[in-house]
Structure formats: structure tokens, C-alpha cells
Give the backbone structure.
Amino acid sequence: MVRMRVFVMAFLAAGLWTVPPATAEEAAVVDISGVYRCDGVNPQGQPYRGMVEIVKIRNAYQLRWTFPQSKDAALGIGIISNGVLAVSYYGGEMAGVVVYRVDKDKPLTGEWAVVGSEGGVFPETLTRLSGHGTPTERAPRLPPTLGNPSTIIEG
């Protein structure tokens, strides 16, 4: 036990256990706010298409997925770290996570998982729609079936 403590202290003292600072390139990442076409594969292996609105709110992003072919919709909150947009989302009876690689001027490519999919991970790509620039800094309106997340957070 003493050896472990000494090792950990030496590791910390050597500066080997630090969070790397954000690169200048990361600091200059283009705001990803906008409207996107969403293409992915569902847990049944079927392709789907929808729309995603991304809105920057201070240092975080709020996402809203809508799918015209169904009543499904989802709302998420995420942050960008090390070139990855990580999002937690919920909608109706589903909840999950999605991560997207953020590359300047390229579609957001990612993978998602949902509770109840027995550990499956599925692909999804968001492609910014031309003519749908950065929206004003406001939260997207929630579909009535999703409720208000502030009541969950605030009690």
C-alpha cells in the first residue's frame, strides 16, 4: 500500500497525470450551431433520416432531433472536448449517449447507444444544411412530449 502511494505521488509530481491543455486549434473551433440532416442506422439495422438543430448556450450545446416519418423526437445536452461533441439525450421512453467527431467544414460523424439496445453502438452522421446558418442563441423549443428539462434539473 505504501508503494502504491509513493508511485501515485511520484506520478503526480512528475506531471504525468494532467489534463492536456486545449490546443489553439481547438480554441478556434467553428461554432457548430445550425440545422443538420441526420442519417443513421437504428438498432434493427434499418437506415433512418431526420433533422437536428444544434444551439450553442454558453459553453454547451443543446440538440433537438426530429424525425418526420415518426413521432419520435429527442433532446440532448452536450459539450465539445478534444475535438469530440459528447451528448446525453432523452426522448419519450428512450435515453442514451452520442459522440460526434468535430472536424472543421466536415459532417459530424458519430456513434450512439440507447438504453435497452443490449450494448449496441450505431452510426450517425450530421450534415449541415446550406442556407441554415447559426441560429440566434436560444434554446430550441421542446416538443410537448419531451417535457421541460429544467424541471428535472431543478426539482
